Amino acid sequence: SLPPGPKPIPVLGNVRDLTAKELWLPALQWAKDYGDVVYLHVLGQGLVFLNSPEAAFELLDKRGGIYSDKPQLVMTGELCGCKNMVAFTSYGDQSKRQRRLMHKAFGMQAIPAYYPLLQTETLAFLRRLAADPSKYESHTRRYAGGLTLSVVYGYEAKSNEDRFLQLAEECVDLLANHIASGGGIWPVDIIPALQYLPDWVPGAGFKRKARKWKAKMEEFVEKPYEFVKNSMTSGDYKPSFCSTLLEDEKSKGTESFEFDLKWTANSMYSASGDTTITTVCHFIMAMLSYPEVLMKAQKEIDNVVGTDRLPTIADRDSLPYIQAVMSESLRWGVPVPLNLPHRLMEDDVYKGMHIPKGSLVFGNIWAITRDERIYPDPEEFKPERFLEEVDAETARRRDPKNYVFGFGRRRCPGANLVDSSVWLLIASIIATMNITNTVDEKGRTIEPKYVFDNFIFRTPNSFKCDIRPRSEKALELIRQSEFAY
Ligand code: HEM
């Protein structure tokens, strides 16, 4: 009575059904062929895909007590030293302590305090974009990384090539595309005794790689934290998540406090970059393919905000179309299409199907956001779908924020920050920039090619586009606006 799924071959199971890249594409086909819950296995390791909001909420959310663990992978966790990163910690005391700390920084109540910082960082982003639009990707990386570096460590990134920004880019790429690629299943995860192989034995190359990667990961966790501690000792520091908690006598009480703080800070920093970049890249891709959406959005801003100032978060409720563009960018782009896998801690039964203990459970966000019953013409970028009047239950069901940030007790702790920061970024780009395809020397449009090479995030490889200020007045506005200190 296991859930249905593609037929496995003896012993190896569904090895041949898994793809190294864009696994969400075959996973969508399995959802169509087999329904809400799909089961596969690789060498006996169960993989469960939850393809509807009902199945994902029922299991990952309502039954969160047994669906919130993380796979303990020897290569990722032990050999590469990532086991204390929040996204990899087992469900238990440590993960709960870490999530409480993150809630202090990015819970709903904490977000308004960041509005001035968001305005300042957004304006700085617009200035960089206007000065060198071709680097939109690295400007976005600096914006997203700079924001979390500032909030979490009180550190100000001084250039797109800043050492901490580069360290994050390098380490998240290592993690997503090397260490945890292919779902993070290395031979040593199937046969843990392999970790004791001497380094020189043929086939032990993974140990040499792991040692190099672990050193890099340690640097990534330690260096920004050292920066906070050193600047606090010198007395010259900006208040941040780390400094505030380090100064709070009550928080300091527990033995594991500094350890938790260091790893939690790193987890927030490392999780903010690629996800935000992916969302902004998909917004740009949509504006290239649907120029009428950009025109309509610009018209709304011109009518409501005017052209003499930049939009602020206070304008949000008066800009329903901009909100719809943001929701559609999250739905259409789906930054983390298969969520991060949760591990089931006990045998379970759902609708008569047996889900074995130890299975890795994927909330199939890609299939949900492509479900035609919720989103007709799912491949089309149509912000209008969010403007149709519907009852509260339907509105909840179609709100992509309920899916793209994951589920239950592991849901993304950065979701509230993203909701404000990405909204402001998108609204400000729409207010001031035109985004079009590039043209060749004969004036013919060059259609951009979108390639998705990343295993976990749906980040497109760099693509060409032409971003420039809408007018001289928009450029002046960007240059002359005050930073919101
Ligand atoms: C558009 C931006 C973002 C998207 C789409 C996104 C999406 C996600 C998803 C799908 C998960 C997995 C949830 C699960 O396992 O059910 C996750 C986890 C996580 N995210 Fe985000 N994220 C974004 C930005 C951020 C930011 C800005 C931060 C930090 C401030 C952050 C911090 C984290 C952390 C620490 C986890 C691990 C949580 C855990 O395992 O308990 N994310 N995110």
TrEMBL record:
Molecular function in Gene Ontology: heme binding; iron ion binding; monooxygenase activity; oxidoreductase activity, acting on paired donors, with incorporation or reduction of molecular oxygen
Pfam family, any one: p450
Name the UniProt record assigns to this protein: Cytochrome P450
InterPro entries on file: Cyt_P450, Cyt_P450_CS, Cyt_P450_E_grp-I, Cyt_P450_sf, Cytochrome_P450_fung
Residues at which heme binds: 412
Swiss-Prot/TrEMBL keywords: Heme, Iron, Metal-binding, Monooxygenase, Oxidoreductase, Signal
Cofactor entry: heme
Keyword Ion transport applies: no
Family the UniProt entry places it in: Belongs to the cytochrome P450 family.
Signal among keywords: yes
Pathway the protein takes part in: Secondary metabolite biosynthesis
PANTHER family: P450, PUTATIVE (EUROFUNG)-RELATED, P450, PUTATIVE (EUROFUNG)-RELATED-RELATED
PROSITE patterns: CYTOCHROME_P450
